[in-house]
Design brief:
2 domains; elongated; Rossmann fold; 10 helices; two-stranded parallel sheet
Length: about 260
């Protein structure tokens, strides 16, 4: 199926829609990618200079998708550095951004992201907002399931708070001690709060980790959002369908979604 084809989702088959935020509802995925690149390029350049080794920069396409996209911030720090054979102390949540620990680098990344957000502003995918509103109008429950610790602020700035009955985000991951994506725990917690069995829920995700989480959680339908090679990768990891834009989703009373 082309990512441009219409995908039909039957209202009679599902009771809940669970949405990732960055790259699905909001156009912040690019800001996150740039913030990660700034963080890691600064760190890797300094580390290379200390060791007299060549500097190999963070690749905003391959490294971002493979190691940090869709994951909680500290998991992204750990996983990318591990791919370069680097292991840092965990540190503590009290670490300042200048500390060379997982928590310190995580705070530094967030500082870069908030700076980019302030400079660039927040934009949303209006087609995604329209789908959420249509779902709510038809009695479908909705949740936002995002690894971002800035979810509350982003929803408020984008005037999106009223769209979602449940929020499971990076703050909740820490508070509840949940494993992040690709573990399905975040989506399963959202489904539990909505009082909807996973099989009656639809997951919408642009990140490979999120698609894998939806598949592993036993959700009734996993919709990937992406194009080209990324779309193919989302299918490989378990997306039932992949669309380039949520405007191609058609919510109907009956019939099941196409395979």
């Amino acid at each position: 199926m082309s990512t441009r084809d219409t995908v039909t989702i039957a209202r009679s088959s599902f009771d809940a829609f669970l949405f990732d935020l960055d790259g699905v509802i909001t156009r912040t995925a690019g800001l996150h990618a740039l913030a990660w690149k700034q963080l890691f390029d600064d760190y890797l350049a300094a580390a290379a200079a200390r060791k007299g080794a060549p500097f190999v920069p963070f690749d905003i396409e391959t490294d971002y998708r493979a190691h940090v996209d869709g994951k909680p911030r500290h998991a992204g720090v750990r996983d990318f550095l591990a791919s370069r054979g680097i292991r840092l102390p965990e540190g503590t949540p009290q670490d300042e951004p200048g500390r060379e620990t997982v928590h310190g680098l995580g705070k530094r990344k967030n500082r870069h992201f908030l700076g980019a957000l302030e400079h660039e502003g927040l934009s949303v995918y209006q087609s995604a907002v329209a789908l959420v509103r249509q779902a709510r109008a038809q009695g479908i429950k909705t949740a936002v399931v995002s690894s971002s610790s800035n979810t509350v602020a982003l929803l408020r700035v984008g005037r999106l708070t009223d769209l979602f009955q449940v929020r499971v985000d990076g703050v909740e991951v820490v508070r509840l001690g949940l494993p992040g994506k690709p573990d399905p725990a975040m989506f399963l917690e959202a489904a539990r709060r909505l009082d909807v069995p996973p099989a009656r829920g639809v997951v919408f995700e642009d990140a490979t980790a999120g698609v894998e989480a939806g598949r592993r959680g036993g959700f009734g339908l996993v919709v990937g959002v992406g194009e080209g090679e990324h779309a193919a990768r989302l299918r490989e990891l378990g997306a039932d369908v992949v669309v380039a834009d949520l405007g191609t989703i058609e919510l109907t009373p009956g019939a099941t979604a196409p395979s």
